[in-house]
Amino acid sequence: xxxxxxxxxxxxxxxxxxxxxxxxxxxxxxxxxxxxxxxxxxxxxxxxxxxxxxxxxxxxxxxxxxxxxxxxxxxxxxxxxxxxxxxxxxxxxxxxxxxxxxxxxxxxxxxxxxxxxxxxxxxxxxxxxxxxxxxxxxxxxxxxxxxxxxxxxxxxxxxxxxxxxxxxxxxxxxxxxxxxxxxxxxxxxxxxxxxxxxxxxxxxxxxxxxxxxxxxxxxxxxxxxxxxxxxxxxxxxxxxxxxxxxxxxxxxxxxxxxxxxxxxxxxxxxxxxxxxxxxxxxxxxxxxxxxxxxxxxxxxxxxxxxxxxxxxxxxxxxxxxxxxxxxxxxxxxxxxxxxxxxxxx
Length: 345
Known about the structure:
Blueprint: E1 2-6, H1 14-28, E2 32-37, E3 50-53, E4 69-72, H2 78-86, E5 91-95, H3 107-113, E6 120-122, H4 125-135, E7 140-141, E8 163-167, H5 181-194, E9 199-203, H6 206-211, H7 213-219, E10 224-227, H8 232-241, E11 244-247, H9 256-263, E12 267-271, E13 286-289, H10 296-305, H11 307-321, H12 326-344
Parallel strand pairs: 1-2, 1-4, 2-3, 4-5, 5-6, 6-7, 8-9, 8-11, 9-10, 11-12, 12-13
Helix pairs in contact: 1-12, 5-10, 9-11, 10-11
Protein name: Glycosyl transferase family 1
Domain Glycosyl transferase family: 177-316
GO molecular function, one term: transferase activity
C-alpha cells in the first residue's frame, strides 16, 4: 500500500522515535511509505523511506501525493490530512502519540482535532479510555516497542560507584511541563544529600542541550554528570551505565525511555504516568508511585540500600520488556490498518 505520513519533525524523542520505527519498518516489509514534512523539518533518524519537503513552513493539502492511506499524528497535522483525504488523496487515519489537550498549549484546538478523524490509533489502554470518555471514539491500540540496539551489555558489575540516571529535556518552549523536571531535580538532590557517594547522570539530546540555557546550567552543577548521546549506540551505553533509571513524567501515553532502560538492565523508579502501566508493575519490575505521594526519592534510596531488591527488579524488568518489539507493533499497525481500509476503503 502507498502510505503518506505528514510529520512536523523527526528530532530525537519518544514520539518521533515511534514514527521513525513504524515508517521504516513498514517500508522494509513492502509498503511504499512517504514522509511529508514542512520545509524546516528536522530528521535525526536514519530513514529508509522517501522524505518529501513542502516549499512552505506549514503543510498544505496540495503538498500531499495520492496515497491509499494518510496517517496523521500531532494535532496540527490532522486538519490538513483530513482536507487532503477529502480531495481523494487517501483514507485518513490518525495515530495519536499523546493526548495533547490536557498538557499542551492551545488545548481548544487540540481537543477539537479529535472530532475530525474517526479512525484512530492510540498507544495504551489509558489513552484509549481518555479519548473514549471525551470524544466517544475507541482507538485501536498500537503498543510501543524497543529497538534491538538497546540491550544489556552486563557492564555494571565492573563499575565502582552506583549510578542513578534520568532524561532531561529542554524546558524552554512549554512542552516539558508534564515531565515534572523541577520535581525530578529536587528528588535527585535529596538522594545525593543522603548518599553523596552515588553518581547522578542526566541524559539529554545534544540538539536540545545546544540551545537550552537551562540545560547548560546543569553542567556547572558538580552534583550532576551530563550525557548527550548522539545516537542509539551511545544512548544504550548510558542506559547500561545506570544502576537505577528514574522517570518523573506524570503524563505519557507510552513512556518509552523507562522501557528502554529496563531492556538495558537498569532498575526503574518511576512516577505513574498512565501509559507506563502497560509495562510497569510496582514491586515486581519497578518501583512506581503517584506524584501526590512525593515518594520518588524514597524509592530511589530504597533501591540504593537494598542491592538484592534492586537486582531482582532489574532482572524482572529486563525479562518483561522482551515482549515489546517494534516488529510486533508494526504487525498490529498493519493488521488494524487493513481492517479499516477493508471496511471503509
